[in-house]
Design goal:
- The protein is of the alpha/beta class and 406 residues long.
- Helix content is 18%, strand content 30%.
- The strands form seven sheets. The chain has a six-stranded mixed beta sheet with strand order 7-4-6-5-9-8, with no helix packed on it. Strands 16-13-17-21-20-18 form a six-stranded mixed beta sheet, with helices on both faces.
- Strand 23 and strand 24 form a beta hairpin.
Length: 406
């Protein structure tokens, strides 16, 4: 009899496998958004390299602030290098981003002075060093600014541009092949010929999740539920991709052929088949050479949840990404019982108010693991561990945020 393992054990098994891509490509900065950095980015200079002005004002000696009028001896526009020096009793008009003139140690803002002919009168003093950016304030030479494994976003692009780096190495995304299996399911556009047929959404939902996680996808569509068709489809997928994801055919039914293909036809190494979770307990994960096979249940909600829980972290692992699934604390606003001794993932509504996440189940339908509409609007997944108790109103719980998938 097949043994179902605990959810935590399944995560440990996957964390211990060697599954990381080796491919890198060099791309122009703005083509790297959302990709994973394949190198450390190290500063090759101090920023700023010299003392700079942070405001428009007048460069002065700080101890001159009580000495009456200060004579304006020069202007110091940004981008210029002037020869004038600030001496006792003098000042130089200086602008945001300008080099602080030699002899000055403080920038007095324009709103703190009154101009009288060619001099200024200070009407409000500032501390020594005010509005002066010191060398290395932003970053220092040889500092690691962005670590390998970082997902590139707008801030990383800005820092790279400030370093005059136009191209960087990023990890090549994993190729993920996706198929739904079942002779009763129809792909988009296929004509329904009897009432027993259902429209498949799984392969397209899983593809959307894979793309959001950073993968390149290969859509195989719907595969007939027989040994030959599934074997040929999976063999082709293993040739062209790093991860093969199927939905359906992993339970105990007479026509659940995916598990037979994985174990007997492909001779893949099964990492586990059956986890004590709801939904999706019958999922199967196996390795064939350095390729990963993730066979998900056929119900829409089950396959979606399991794709998030298992496929997404494997995409991150392949990429060498530092990302993790966003699990946070929230306050539950109603009683909610533990229905069975499994780790349960339940769709809920989430909102952020009063400096905390709050969840409820308004409008969420109770029923089978086929109800994908529970993932609409502003969903999260409530996590109830196998050894937890019934939840009471106002308890603090763990939830998995899903807004990043939108």
């Amino acid at each position: 009899m097949r043994k179902f393992i605990k959810y935590e054990e399944s995560l440990t098994i996957l964390s211990n496998i060697q599954f990381k891509g080796k491919g890198k490509e060099k791309l122009f900065l703005t083509n790297c958004i959302g990709k994973v950095l394949a190198q450390d980015i190290i500063a090759n200079h101090n920023s700023p390299e010299v003392q700079m002005s942070a405001l428009d004002g007048y460069a002065i000696k700080s101890n001159d602030q009580k000495n009456g009028l200060l004579k304006i001896i020069d202007k110091n526009p940004a981008g210029s290098v002037i020869e004038s020096k600030v001496e006792k009793g003098t000042c130089i008009k200086t602008f945001t981003g300008s080099i602080m003139p030699e002899g000055s140690d403080t920038l007095i803002p324009i709103e703190n002075v009154e101009v009288e002919n060619d001099s200024i009168k200070i009407i409000e003093e500032v501390k020594k060093g005010f509005a002066v950016r010191e060398p290395g304030e932003n970053y220092k030479k040889d500092e690691i600014l962005i670590k390998e494994g970082t997902t590139i976003g707008f801030a990383e692009i800005g820092v790279l541009a400030s370093l005059n780096i136009s191209q960087i190495y990023v990890y090549t995304e994993p190729r993920v092949s996706i198929a739904s299996t079942g002779s009763e399911i129809l792909d988009l556009g296929e004509e329904q010929t009897n009432s027993a047929q259902i429209r498949s959404s799984n392969h397209l939902t899983v593809e959307a999740i894979a793309k959001k996680a950073g993968a390149r996808t290969i859509q195989m569509g719907v595969v007939k539920d027989d040994i030959k068709s599934i074997t040929e489809a999976m063999q082709d997928a293993l040739q062209s991709s790093d991860i093969v994801v199927t939905t359906g055919g992993v339970s105990r039914g007479d026509y659940d052929f995916v598990q037979d293909v994985v174990k007997e036809e492909l001779k893949a190494k099964v990492l586990f088949h059956g986890v004590k979770i709801k939904p999706g307990g019958h999922l199967l994960i196996a390795q064939k050479d350095n390729k990963l096979i993730i066979s998900l249940p056929g119900f829409a909600y089950s396959s979606t949840v399991c794709a998030i829980l298992y496929m997404v972290p494997m995409i991150y692992k392949f990429l060498g990404s530092q990302k993790k699934l966003p699990i946070v604390k929230a306050r539950i606003t109603q009683d909610f019982p533990l229905k069975m001794k499994k780790t349960i993932f339940t769709a809920c509504n989430v909102k952020y108010e009063d400096a905390e996440y709050k969840i409820d189940f308004d409008g969420k339908k109770q029923g089978t693991s086929a109800i994908l509409t529970n993932m609409l609007e502003s969903p999260a997944l409530l996590i109830q561990k196998e050894d937890s108790e019934d939840l009471k109103k106002n308890d603090i719980v763990d939830i998995l945020l899903l807004d990043w998938l939108k």
